[in-house]
Amino acid sequence: NAGVTQTPKFRILKIGQSMTLQCTQDMNHNYMYWYRQDPGMGLKLIYYSVGAGITDKGEVPNGYNVSRSTTEDFPLRLELAAPSQTSVYFCASSPGLAPPATQYFGPGTRLTVL
Amino acid sequence: AQTVTQSQPEMSVQEAETVTLSCTYDTSESDYYLFWYKQPPSRQMILVIRQEAYKQQNATENRFSVNFQKAAKSFSLKISDSQLGDAAMYFCAYRSNSKLTFGKGITLSVRP
After folding, report:
1. Cα separation, A70 vs B42, whole angstroms
2. A70 found inside a domain
3. Nearest residue on chain A to B51, judged by CA atoms?
4. Which of A15, A36, A51, A114 is most buried, by CB atoms within 10 Å?
């Protein structure tokens, strides 16, 4: 049981480049999330999805886009990368709002924009 | 908006001793969940313990327990018989509806 998987694990981008961070879960969870974690800080929500075809903005959505065409996949797209997007990105999933409402996290992607 | 505050940036504990990590939160809602996550150097976010706000009984998971004070909006984590493997960053998190709000975290070191 793989849980939540993320690719790549590391990536270095040049300013202005674009890339997609991949996230896949095999737990048939309806809810999926993207967070970023800056050094010495907690996680901040970028985007989330409550099911295929439904996405919504979180706390820090600017500079990112998402799509959710299947239950399993929730890619995060960075357009025109900027140094401020240097961070560690986590994808998470949750079965829904019913107890215990736990989110399960992927291993993270470390992104550096130079 | 909900906020989660972890006011202690760092703590240290002697191996086999007990340590308590503090967390407070601010909310106007009555139905929510609280979590403690552990993040070791590998960066993996690991669920330590969770608490449903409607439950008065404090959650326990082996050496980990919480002191949940709903009226005071306080949710502290107690680690008993600390082990070297407990050294990590610990995050307190609040969940209402579909969103998690994290505190800034606390770095716990364990002295052998």
Report:
1. 29
2. yes
3. A100
4. A36
